[in-house]
């Protein structure tokens, strides 16, 4: 149950507590609307996904320099208006530690307790872009700063006396995970750096091969990494879409999935691709996934249909 803080905003339930208390979780990632687009559409999507069975959400930041504000207020609305836990994506690229601390305090005051700590993408339309010389460069540095705030260690103010009355924050820190990172040694090394600095769980990039996920869990276990790793995925509608995803993100789609997808998107093919996704979900469960994080994108029909069926099957398994 969520409690209110001094400002009247609900303090969120921590995602790590949900992952520890539930056998398998169903969650979804929401993208804020483009700046200037009516906000009601994304709120309607959230309502549909909650009705379908989404147990918590994450809200992205604009990728690649795209103009999409609203991550914080949408996260706050999901938590306060809908009473559902939410992870706010937080990117640090080109932000100084001072700017990071100030923005994290905004999240703290709004009762946001779940942060997915990310480096963030450089602007795609600025090939000569360079980050600010004093900015954070990597996600593990952001995770370290959040952990220090959780320990009550705030940035010093030049010329000011230390404030003994500072109250620590209480963020639950998540990290992005890349099982198909092209350099084999780095995909575990980078996660270990994040966990050592304070990350409590991970969410993978889009993954469409349960054997790749299983191997990644095995490699993590060999290195003593025991944090929950949620596989992130979306419902592929066609082989053409699958090939686009593979090229864009440098990932693989298993032959088991690819061979059952239609060549092109079918107008009335939602049920077919949802059932295929549920087969994949069973494979993820068998290899030890603690849940599934569904990247909704703009496909609300397939996403809500999958969540409804997933929830029904989970109740049936109980």
Question: What's a quick, concise take on this entry?
Answer:
The chain has 318 residues and is an alpha/beta fold.
Kindly describe this structure.
The protein has a single domain (3-317), classed as Alpha-Beta Barrel (TIM Barrel), CATH 3.20.20. Helix content is 42%, strand content 15%. It is built from eleven helices and ten strands. The protein has helices at residues 15-21, 40-52, 71-80, 97-109, 139-150, 184-197, 210-222, 239-249, 255-258, 270-286, 300-317; strands at 3-4, 10-11, 25-30, 56-59, 86-91, 114-118, 172-177, 201-206, 229-233, 291-295. It has an eight-stranded parallel β-barrel with strand order 3-4-5-6-7-8-9-10, surrounded by seven helices. Strands 1-2 form a two-stranded antiparallel ribbon. The chain is globular, with a radius of gyration of 20 Å. The protein starts with a strand and ends with a helix.
């Amino acid at each position: 149950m969520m409690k209110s803080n001094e400002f009247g905003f609900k303090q969120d339930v921590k995602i790590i507590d949900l992952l520890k208390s539930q056998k398998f979780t169903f969650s979804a990632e929401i993208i804020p609307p483009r700046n200037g687009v009516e906000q009601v559409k994304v709120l309607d999507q959230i309502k549909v996904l909650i009705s379908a069975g989404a147990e918590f959400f994450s809200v992205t930041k604009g990728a690649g320099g795209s103009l999409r504000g609203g991550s914080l207020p949408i996260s706050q609305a999901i938590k306060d208006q809908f009473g559902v836990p939410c992870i706010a994506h937080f990117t640090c690229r080109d932000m100084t530690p001072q700017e990071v601390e100030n923005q994290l305090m905004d999240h703290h005051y709004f009762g946001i307790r779940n942060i997915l700590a990310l480096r963030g993408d450089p602007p795609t339309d600025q090939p000569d872009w360079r980050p600010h010389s004093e900015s954070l460069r990597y996600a593990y540095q952001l995770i370290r700063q959040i952990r220090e705030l959780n320990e009550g260690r705030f940035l010093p103010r030049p010329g000011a006396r230390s404030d003994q009355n500072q109250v620590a924050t209480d963020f639950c820190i998540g990290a992005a995970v890349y099982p198909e990172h092209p350099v084999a040694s780095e995909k575990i090394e980078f996660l270990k750096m994040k966990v050592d600095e304070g990350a409590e769980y991970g969410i993978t990039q889009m993954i469409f091969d349960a054997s790749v996920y299983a191997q990644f869990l095995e490699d993590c276990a060999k290195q003593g990494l025991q944090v929950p790793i949620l596989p992130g995925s979306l419902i592929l509608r066609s082989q053409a879409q699958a090939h686009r995803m593979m090229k864009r993100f440098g990932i693989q789609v298993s032959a088991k999935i690819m061979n059952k997808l239609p060549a092109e998107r079918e107008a009335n093919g939602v049920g077919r691709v949802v059932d295929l996704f549920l087969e994949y979900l069973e494979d993820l469960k068998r290899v030890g996934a603690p849940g599934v994080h569904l990247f909704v994108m703009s496909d609300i029909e397939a996403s809500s249909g999958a969540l409804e069926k997933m929830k029904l099957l989970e109740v049936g398994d109980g």
